[in-house]
Amino acid sequence: MLSVPALPYAFQFDPAHTALIVIDMQRDFIEPGGFGASLGNQVARLAPSVPVVAELLGLCRRHKLLIVHTREAHRPDMADCPPAKRARGNPAVQIGDNGPMGRILVSGEPGCEIVAAVAPLVDEIVLDKPGKGAFYATALGEILRIKGIRQLIFAGVTTEVCVQTSMREANDRGYDCLLIEDATESYFPEFKAATLEMIRAQGGIVGWTAPLQALASAFQAATQESHA
Ligand code: TIU
Prior knowledge:
By secondary structure, this protein is α/β, with parallel strands linked by helices. The protein is built from 8 helices and 10 strands.
């Protein structure tokens, strides 16, 4: 087991039974003209997470973790988009409507793609999800069971919406979850800060949080031990 200096206490994980889950690093949230912008958000606020997620992906690829990327994405026929979800937000630009990057939050459209700097490799799993949580109406639970996964490392956007929802779903399913603090961002800095606090409060009621450097140091310590 590797040990990451984390809050509220050290996060223990076995790389062979751990997956990295990268949530919704899509153009629709991170670039101007997409879903995030249609809701009135300052999308530039998510930009700092991109190079950190890229570094996290590099680290996890080197250490052979299972890697899963999610996208918040609806079917082109919109049959999986509840009218209540579509009706929420900006009435002028709704999910499924045409925007500068194609139809908003629709699979196959340019805006739905993951930004180039953190793009999936061909052998990595990409899951489209119709909800905020990564387990709802997806094969994620089944995939993790088949792969023998017990711990999850989370990154992506936005911290308090799809990342937190997915972590809570995972926590209820018995996974130990670590959120990489600098590999996630919100349009609302105060919501990000509150989410990190609520995840690790009450003895880690949802999971653990740690910066990327702490995870890197855990891998480094294990590598040095194996060469000693
Ligand atoms: N609006 C917002 O902050 N987020 C979402 O709608 N989806 C995700 O977090 N991916």
